[in-house]
Amino acid sequence: MKPIKLVVAAVLTSVALGATAVHAADTEGRDGRRMQRMHGPSLERMVFGNALAAELAKQTGRTADEVRELFADGGPREAAETLGLDRDAMKAAMEQARQAVIAQALAAQMITAEQAQTLAEAKPRHLGKNGSRPDADTGEDG
Question: Contacts by 66-73 with C-beta closer than 8 Å and gap 24+?
Fold first, then answer.
């Protein structure tokens, strides 16, 4: 397999792993302002963020730019509230965005059909077997 395809496959896999954590990285600063942890530029976050913004725009009638601005201004919870979406709807939108990224990578021949199938069938590692986050105390699917 060509090295570039391996890199792209790794990028797509990490999109699934980091997407929720990236958007949930808001913390409260000492001065009371919401701050996002400094991660630096990331291809994975940018690709997934754009795919998620496009999916939420499609679902809510807003533009993708408006959705991106909501995330930048208040983080995922406030964006979801403003868009009128509950947690389950946001999780579903994230999975739809993930599947869209996989399909786009396949169409651009950045991954093989076999890799696309593997990624499409795999649940992101940050989610439990049934698609929900494991309980922090017990490790059981929530």
Answer: 71/23
